[in-house]
Structures are given as structure tokens and as C-alpha cells.
UniProtKB/TrEMBL annotation:
UniProt GO molecular function: long-chain fatty acyl-CoA hydrolase activity
This protein's UniProt keywords: Hydrolase
PROSITE patterns recorded: HOTDOG_ACOT
Superkingdom per UniProt: Bacteria
Name of the protein: Acyl-CoA thioesterase
Organism in which the protein naturally occurs: Paenibacillus rhizophilus
Domain HotDog ACOT-type: 16-128
Listed PANTHER family: ACYL COENZYME A THIOESTER HYDROLASE, CYTOSOLIC ACYL COENZYME A THIOESTER HYDROLASE
Assigned protein family: Belongs to the acyl coenzyme A hydrolase family.
Amino acid sequence: MSESSQPAAPASKYCRESRVFKTGRVFPNDINNHQTLFGGKLMSNIDEVASISAMRHCRCNVVTASTDSVDFLSPIRPTDSFCFESFVSWTGRTSIEVFVKVIAENLYSGERAVAATSFLTFVAIDPDGKPAPVPAVIPETDEEKLISDLAEERSELRKVRRAASKKLAAQLITTKYWE
């Protein structure tokens, strides 16, 4: 398909149009041996809310392309609730960066703290399974602008990291270790 025959990118959307909130509570089956929320449960929820933000933004299917990081900043304890907040912070032609903030709240004292942050990238997929153009994103609040300001730099770092991962993967063996 030539450049001129590619579908046009949809109209821009505001970050708020993709915002997702999800609140949960820590239960005994959610904790690890340190008596804090199991990191895998947190990461699963991060991917879930981020994918909803991405789909709200492009209104089509998406696939997770990368998770830049999940930075665990403070523990989430059984006395806490946790609130995930996500929104689209940047877009490329077919890629969508989503920022996720996790706030822990002590249910007895009301004290709140940012417990984790994460950036994930999704690719929009059309009905034929091909990458689809996505709307640009418009930050409005100070927090949205803060997050969006460094997005292109994060995108470039992702490209470098992905190339390094591909180079490493090409050198890894795939034979069964017992053969």
C-alpha cells in the first residue's frame, strides 16, 4: 500500500476521553510472603486498565506491544485499597502509549500514596489484523502535559530496547535443554 493510499489518521482526542479508573481491595489471597500485594496481580490489573484506555482512544482492537516498566514505589498492604488510573499519553501512527498510576489508600487512616507507575505501548489492529492508524492525543491537565512531554523520548528508547531484544533473541537457543 503506498503512502497516499493509507487510511488517514482519525481526529485527535483528549487524554480524558481514554481515562480509566479501577479500585480494588487487598484480600488474603492477594498477598505475597512479605504481606504486601503480589506484584503479578498488580501487573495484570495494569495491563487490563491500560488496554481499556487504548481501546477507548482508537475504538478498535489493540495488542500489547511492550511494557516499558512497572515501578513499584511503595508497598500495598492488606489494610489498603488500590486505585488504578490510566490514560493515553502519546500516540504514533499506529501505536498508543498509556500511562498507569496506582494509588494505595490506607482504609483506616485515609492516607494515600502513589504505589506504582507504568508505561505500556499498544498497537491498534484493524479487522484484518493489520496495524491501524490512531488519533493523536491532546493533553490538558498539568499532569497529562508532564507525562506527555517526554513521550517521544520514551518512544525512541523503546525502539532501541526492542532492537537490542531482537538481537539477543536471535542468539538464544530454542532446542530442548534435555536433548
